Amino acid sequence: MLVRIDRISEHVGQEIKIGGWLYNKRSSGKIQFLQLRDGTGFVQGVLVKNQVEPEVWETAKQLTQESSLYVWGVVRADERAPSGYELDVTKVEIIQLAEEYPIQKKEHGVDFLMDHRHLWIRSPRQRAILKIRAEIIRAIQDHLNQQGFTLVDPPILTPSACEGTTNLFHTKYFDEDAYLTQSGQLYMEAAAMALNRVYSFGPTFRAEKSKTRRHLIEFWMIEPEMAFVDHEGNLEIQEQLVAHIVDHVLNHCQAELKTLGRDLSALEKVKAPFPRITYDEAVELLHREGFSDFQWGDDFGAPHETKIAESFDRPVFITHYPTEVKAFYMKPDPNRPEVVLCADLIAPEGYGEIIGGSQRIDDPELLAERFEVHRLPKEAYAWYLDLRKYGSVPHSGFGLGLERTVAWICGLEHVRETIPFPRMLNRLYP
């Protein structure tokens, strides 16, 4: 029976069989050290020449990087080993002898690594990132499920846009125009009227010609929507979710975070409640910090978000943005209609916005007015207006960008490493 590397601690002193790949190999003449990986972890196999059959030694000598193989050996605890264990190898069977591997120990350029992304993800660093991504997804779904949310799947092809069609991918749906979704939010609002608390988790697409380290063309969004939840309740749900995600990763991904060299002290500070400042206060902060040309009504860019975040040791909410810079569906503040009941959650350490959310307009007349202001076709959004005609209630929601969240928690420079096969402005391969 095969034993996974992440389970070898259960077999100390026993001979086991592992199926995996050769990550690296070195030899001191009479000893061969095989760095083995099987997708669940890494372990070193030690092959001593005078302790194995000659054919086993010769078989191991043939091995090339990323050759696939079965290895038999006795598990031994070793505090010096990165995994805490080593394998005293007794037998080796080659499954496939790999050709010369393109990715070597030397430094490679980003374009080369991205061209070989299908192989690059085998490396310890990339594996660690993808494992953390998976645990973040697990944490999100576990938390939302425990809080009474129901998973609902919105369509990928839509007849209209959530926030205008400027940055959408257009396609033909037989004889009609259609778009790849930029958000499942509008459909989640409909689902919330049926199921109370819902969320979607799926790919979204933005046809933005952006090359920044924060942008992808295809990315994944978690979009909860809640009936009978106001602006304040929305913020509390968001901060509880993010605090849970970080706590989960700290508890389940210590080895992966160590591989990445992540500063854990920065993550350990992420506890709810999060600080909150209004858009007005954020503008005043920027003026004090030298951004004197920033005008009230402007939207924040990456440098502005970074400067604001530097004043806090955990994520910070920026609330009450000007109505004119936000989406048509956001509810104006009844006490100050020129701003809306919304918030962006800005991650620390310069990672920018990871969540955008708001209380939604629940008044059918006001929503119809917003259609006019934003020049949205009434026929395309008639179903959305129906939600306000037939039992409208106060409701709120938000969208969490998975890749930006992964980048922040992992401490990555660019979001391209946060997704298995990134789609960027000039990259559709592999």
TrEMBL record:
Matches recorded under PROSITE patterns: AA_TRNA_LIGASE_II
Cellular component, GO, one term: cytoplasm
CDD domains: AsnRS_cyto_like_N (cd04323), AsxRS_core (cd00776)
Catalytic activity: tRNA(Asn) + L-asparagine + ATP = L-asparaginyl-tRNA(Asn) + AMP + diphosphate + H(+)
UniProt main location, coarse: cytoplasm
The keyword Transport appears for this protein: no
UniProt enzyme class: ligase
SUPFAM superfamilies attached to this UniProt entry: Class II aaRS and biotin synthetases (SSF55681), Nucleic acid-binding proteins (SSF50249)
GO biological process assignments: asparaginyl-tRNA aminoacylation
Enzyme Commission code: 6.1.1.22
Subunit structure: Homodimer.
Protein name: Asparagine--tRNA ligase
